[in-house]
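Key result, reporting period 2: structure in, sequence out.
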């Protein structure tokens, strides 16, 4: 055991990969823990097949010796291009599961010349044979869901047996939207900038234990009884707080009709995914929004109402942290933010306009122009820590093709002194001064480039600067909205996962 690895491998004469597998304690630990080898497989005839699946998963997953299960998170304020990245990665996974958020998290995916904006259904559904799961951490507006089902049906995409909806997911009702609009109006200048889709109030009800869940819709009597109780309470609150009555007319009837459309999708998503992992299937967990919008670790209160960080994959899908094999963080080559809240590297108007227009930085769902800024490595360093990011994807590199020089923020000063940590208070973050490094631009067209060797030197230097600063590999680079405008960096963890 004391000989260096190449010598050991050669002296025994196994191929090196077999030897490295057999001497790797993580493989045996993983095998033992799951009963994969010599364990309690349910029947001897499936043991061989299971072991094969687990062995192949181990080889592909590499890092933890578990079936391949990888989380994808936004490392900034959302809209990082996760839709495209997840769509690309989905080809290498059996299940694609959404863990949080609602139909405010629009993913745009373009393929075969068609543009799909999927707000609730994981975009993995666009690939035939893949399973898409909407987890219990998601809040579901059944009207929006059925609308997406119709859009997919019109495009000829059959979801039968492939789309699964968690029975524990909470429902959004029209009264949530009504209350959200009233609350935003009452906040005046201090408004959060929500999408007014009722997502925040639905999460509030979930936490206040007033929520009604997907499974409740499937039992008409139970549903009517719960709805009646909740709406009479909410009506009283709405009248007292905002001076308006709650409009609940027709809700029960409409929702019970929608229930029949979604009934075939409803399942215990946690059981589904754990079973999938147990039988050697791979799972890609898809986070919504981004780290800086996370309810706990984002720029509170200018955040979303759920956990957008990697931990949300566990809480939102009922899968334990020990089953997650890696975390991919997605960042743009620059930064954007929608709505109000602190944004230290925000660009002045003129520069922002160029980036906004080149990057088509307008909300996929709302059409709102996004605020644009330089890449903020203080934010990314924080995101790496909070999420345990093992590999980074940099999207929209092409948007910087026209920049003469690129500023990149390497840290903040607060009240004149450098600070190491991300300020917890939004008020403090609003007062930091970013420190910039200036890097040369590349002034070359990188749109649609598919090979790393074809990227200009200055673009590679920019990427290397990011990777070195954060101490994290860049596993993938995106150079355009199309699926194939993608570079997978050879030799990276990410490359081994797909
Ligand atoms: P998401 O919610 O994180 O998926 O973000 P969006 O759906 O808002 O995606 C951002 C937009 O950028 C979409 O219109 C994508 O098609 C587009 N996009 C993604 N990657 C790239 C890229 O590398 N270059 C360019 N020019 N556009 C991209």
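The corresponding designed sequence is given below.
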């Amino acid at each position: 055991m004391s000989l260096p690895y190449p010598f050991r491998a050669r002296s025994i004469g196994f191929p090196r990969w077999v030897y490295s597998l057999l001497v790797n304690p993580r493989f045996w630990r993983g095998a033992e823990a799951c009963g994969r080898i010599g364990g309690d497989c349910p029947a001897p005839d499936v043991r061989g097949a299971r072991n094969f699946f687990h062995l192949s998963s181990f080889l592909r997953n590499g890092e933890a010796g578990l079936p391949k299960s990888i989380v994808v998170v936004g490392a900034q304020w959302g809209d990082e291009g996760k839709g495209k990245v997840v769509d690309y990665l989905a080809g290498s996974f059996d299940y694609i599961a959404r863990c949080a958020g609602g139909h405010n998290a629009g993913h745009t995916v373009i393929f075969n010349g068609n543009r799909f904006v999927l707000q609730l259904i994981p975009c993995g559904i666009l690939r035939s044979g893949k399973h898409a799961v909407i987890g219990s951490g998601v809040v579901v507006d059944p009207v929006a869901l059925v609308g997406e089902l119709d859009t997919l049906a019109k495009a000829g995409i059959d979801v039968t047996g492939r789309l699964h909806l968690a029975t524990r997911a909470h429902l959004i009702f029209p009264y949530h939207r009504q209350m959200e609009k009233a609350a935003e109006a009452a906040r005046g200048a201090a408004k959060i900038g929500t999408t007014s889709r009722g997502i925040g109030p639905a999460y509030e009800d979930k936490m206040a234990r007033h929520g009604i869940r997907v499974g409740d819709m499937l039992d008409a009597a139970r549903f009517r009884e719960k709805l009646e109780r909740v709406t009479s309470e909410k009506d009283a609150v709405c009248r007292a707080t905002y001076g308006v009555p709650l409009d609940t007319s027709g809700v029960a009837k409409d929702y019970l009709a929608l229930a029949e459309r979604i009934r075939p999708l409803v399942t215990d998503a946690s059981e589904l995914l754990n079973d999938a992992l147990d039988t050697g299937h791979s799972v890609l967990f898809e986070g919504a929004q981004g780290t800086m919008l996370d309810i706990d670790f984002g720029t509170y209160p200018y955040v979303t109402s759920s956990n957008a960080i990697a931990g949300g994959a566990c809480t939102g899908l009922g899968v334990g942290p020990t089953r997650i094999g890696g975390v991919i963080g997605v960042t743009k080559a620059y930064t954007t933010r929608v709505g109000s809240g602190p944004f230290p590297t925000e660009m002045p108007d003129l520069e922002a306009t160029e980036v906004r227009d080149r990057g088509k930085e307008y909300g996929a769902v709302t059409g709102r122009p996004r605020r644009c800024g330089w890449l903020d490595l203080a934010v990314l360093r924080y995101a790496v820590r909070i999420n345990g990011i093992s590999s980074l994807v940099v999207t929209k590199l092409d948007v910087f093709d026209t920049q003469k020089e690129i500023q990149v923020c390497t840290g903040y000063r607060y009240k004149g002194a450098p600070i190491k940590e991300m300020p917890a208070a939004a008020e403090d973050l609003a007062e930091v001064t970013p420190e910039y490094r200036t890097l040369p631009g590349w002034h070359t067209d990188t749109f649609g480039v598919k090979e790393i060797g074809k990227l200009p030197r200055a673009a590679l230097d920019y990427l290397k600067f990011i990777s070195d600063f954060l101490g994290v590999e860049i596993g993938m680079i995106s150079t355009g909205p199309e699926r194939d405008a993608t570079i997978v960096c050879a030799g990276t963890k990410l490359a081994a996962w797909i």
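The two ends are 32 Å apart (CA to CA). The first strand starts at residue 69 and ends at 74. This case is discussed further under Risks and Mitigation.
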